[in-house]
User: Fold these one by one.
Assistant:
Number 1:
Amino acid sequence: MERPLAIRARGITKTFGDVIALDGIDLDMAEGRIHGLVGPNGAGKTTLLGLLLGLAAPDEGTLEILGSPVGRTLETPDGVTGFVDGPGLYPSLSAEQNLAALAALRGRDADMSSVADVLAQVGLSDVAGDRVRGFSLGMRQRLGLAAALLAKPRLLVLDEPANGLDPAGKKHVHRVLNRLADEGATVVLSSHRMDDVEALCTEVTIVAAGRVVFTGPRTKLSAETGELDYRLRTSDPGAARELATETAGVRVVEESEDVARDDAELLVVRASVPALDTLVAGLARAGIAVRELAPVTSPLEAAFLALTDQESAR
Ligand SMILES: Nc1ncnc2c1ncn2[C@@H]1O[C@H](COP(=O)(O)OP(=O)(O)OP(=O)(O)O)[C@@H](O)[C@H]1O
């Protein structure tokens, strides 16, 4: 059964003076999924997220959020929360005072057990009583997420949520977002980190110059990618190079910008998946062990570069 849509956008346009930030955006985002919004600098991601949060209204087009049409007034249905350009926090208050104050602003009494719970979820229990003034960027991001969780979101909108996060912080954030989606909430996040998007998002939208150039399941994007460069490390680099050169559809890339040049053991090969399969089977037959085989740039990054280049070349 098709999932209901959390977001349905048709022909959304937003301009700032002469700048067309969004140029006819059509978008369907299903409930209960984590959607990644990616695109080059200035593509329109923050503008689009701002519309979802009711921070601005579209100039043209129709937007439905959680089944409700959003008009020209700056309002969004209940259950929509998140932040763009970093969370708004009070530096002179502690983490827990910030959350209590935000709960009060939303017209709810501060329930300190909920405050403690969301702080634990984002891994900030130890600094609950510390002033936010002394928080790092990553801690502020996590506190912003805690504030959003307190509102029990049905749609959570986050601009670059992994900004400034260390690996432990990232783990907390990923766990929290996955749990939210498992519980049926929809998460829409923008990121310049393709590895984060690959780790988190089942759905991806790529925007370039205010237009959608791809939207759909991330796996579909990977499948559509043709040839990729792969790092190949084997037990016999010389013999592997020879075999790669002889295998139809496989090319040895001599100078790869993305791989350290002083690593003589590592081979970079360019191939489609079927040609790569032939090479790997050939290596096995020749008794050459494969110790590492991975794309140099991820399928998402490759598609991103190809699709956004295409767009700017139009
Ligand atoms: N308030 C504003 N006033 C004028 N121009 C704006 C405003 N907000 C956005 N823009 C312009 O709209 C375009 C889209 O900007 P936006 O911030 O949405 O892009 P982005 O994809 O989030 O970029 P980045 O990855 O750099 O954050 C840019 O050309 C930007 O300069």
Number 2:
Amino acid sequence: MLGAFVTDFFTYETTKSVVVKSWSVGIVNRIIQLLIIIYFVGYVFLYEKAYQQNDTGVESSVMTKVKGFGYQDNQVQDTADYVYPPQGAGVFCIITKVIVTDNQTRGLCEEVRIPLSGSVVIPAETEPMVDVNNFTIFIKNSIRFPMFDVTRGNFPQHMTSKEIKSCSYHPVRSPLCPIFRVGDILNSTGQDVHTLATMGGEIGINIAWRCDLDWDEEHCRPQYSFTRLDAPFSHNSVSKGYNFRFARYYKKEDGLDYRTLFKAHAIRFDIMVTGNAGKFSTVPTLINTVAALTSIGLGTVLCDIILLNFMKGADQYKAKKFEEVK
Ligand SMILES: Nc1ncnc2c1ncn2[C@@H]1O[C@H](COP(=O)(O)OP(=O)(O)OP(=O)(O)O)[C@@H](O)[C@H]1O
């Protein structure tokens, strides 16, 4: 038993080519090779661009500015009233409804159970501001792909102030206009402005940069898409929408501080930037070419299985293929 194992172990296998003149196996072999070549050339190289090195670590900065007039309880509201925080960051809120509690003063210790009470004030609720549909958001986004040291901005350099002021983003008609009508954004996410203005909610604006840097940089352009980010909670019984509280403080003539408390329902916009740039590089090209060439050999495996198991005269092929030399 041990002897047989040792003789089996100390053998040497070397390949020998057997040419099989059979139409059926020949055709199967060529078809498999063709499929593998089509897969590698068409999908791996042309579609997935396996000859490129990729940079997904995009560096980005976003600036925003909202404009438009709204009417709330017969009062005109402008940017300074409804945008929070006002600095124009990548995440900002447009306040659409407020519940106002006026004249709160700090109470004494005995009144600790109602710590912020003056006289008991009943909060006043404003109407939701549906004019938000006509507001416009200006988005200025600059990005950099550090691996290739390429910087891009989301609107063309030659765009004039007049062009910017008069355009409005449309995915087909003006895909590079940096001014977005809130109504258009809400429409494309399928949201109803009235519900959103009443309860608040969060809208995501995604800016995707997919750049093939083997072409001119001019082709490296942003693509925008819009989603409702808090959609999973929209049917919950609790915490529908989005709100936050803030206060404004005043001093009375007698020196006493008092404040007005606002509970604000707002549409929160969150601008997210993603990027992927690719450029020709020898290392991935070599690795993938070798992988492609090796894979072409896979056809033999399948043809061997057919030849040695399912063809007429399989035993004869087996005898020809495996030959023992003493
Ligand atoms: N939300 C917006 N809707 C329409 N146009 C806008 C909006 N925000 C900015 N713009 C216009 O885009 C251009 C660039 O804006 P940017 O804020 O950089 O310049 P600005 O001269 O300070 O703008 P502003 O007109 O607010 O004083 C300006 O012409 C500006 O009027």
